[in-house]
Amino acid sequence: MKVFLIGFMGSGKSTVGKVSAKKLGLKFLDLDSFIEEQEGKSIREIFSFYGEEKFRLLEKEALAKVSAFEDDLLIATGGGCPCFFDNMELMNQIGLTVYLKISLGRLVSRLKNGMDERPLLNEVSDLYEFISAKLEEREPFYSKAQLILVDDQAGKDKAWKSISKAI
Ligand code: S3P
């Protein structure tokens, strides 16, 4: 069994993922951390040395690798993962896809303090404008998820209950 958590940066995929995996008896895997281990570089370094295009290829390869693992896994993906290549279709074929859908206002307030650590936000001047446009672009991919949890439903105390019913 594989569960894929998807959603924008700051939607809580890692936190919700860790708690849910524990509750559901699944192993937790963070796709960005997996890429970092494989490459021996941080996501930030990968973006700045090789650029986003190369990162997306590494991300696609990593997704294929973890999808082939035999373990029961809950995988937290990076915010852009469902929006490139046929990644979303692959995840929908392999397992249960869960979209943590967090409102624009909440995303902005969660992301405003961590802008330096996130390569895509490094040089953004108007965070609200940027997130609003990126969300609109990504929503058609995210909305292909089999389970969509909105705002409070997407929090760590509730999400795992909905996931357990959908598995
Ligand atoms: C990205 C999100 C990041 C990371 C990379 C690109 C994106 O992951 O994969 O910086 O395109 O939204 P998080 O969603 O875990 O921050």
Helical content (DSSP H or I, runs of 4+): 40-55%
Number of strands: 5
Net shape: globular
How many H/I helical runs? 8
Order of helices and strands: EHEHHHEHEHHEH
DSSP strand content: 5-15%
Main beta-sheet annotation:
5 strands, parallel
Can you list the ligands bound to this structure?
Answer: shikimate-3-phosphate
Low-pLDDT runs of 5+ residues are: none
Radius of gyration based on Cα positions: 15 Å
Distance between the termini: 8 Å
Mean pLDDT: 97
Q: Indicate the structural class.
A: alpha/beta
Strand order of the largest sheet: 2-3-1-4-5
What this model shows, in words?
This protein is of the alpha/beta class and 167 residues long. The protein is built from 8 helices and 5 strands, in the order E-H-E-H-H-H-E-H-E-H-H-E-H. It has helices at 13-24, 31-39, 43-50, 52-67, 87-94, 104-111, 127-142, 159-166, and strands at residues 2-6, 27-30, 73-76, 96-101, 147-150. Strands 2-3-1-4-5 form a 5-stranded parallel beta sheet, with helices on both faces. Helix 2 (31-39) packs across helix 4 (52-67), helix 3 (43-50) packs across helix 4 and helix 4 runs parallel beside helix 5. It starts with a strand and ends with a helix. The model has no long low-confidence stretch (mean pLDDT 97). The structure holds shikimate-3-phosphate (S3P). Residues 9, 13, 32, 43, 78-80, 118-120 line the site of shikimate-3-phosphate.
In short:
The protein is an alpha/beta fold and 167 residues long. 51% of the residues lie in helices and 14% in strands. The protein has a five-stranded parallel sheet with strand order 2-3-1-4-5, with helices on both faces.
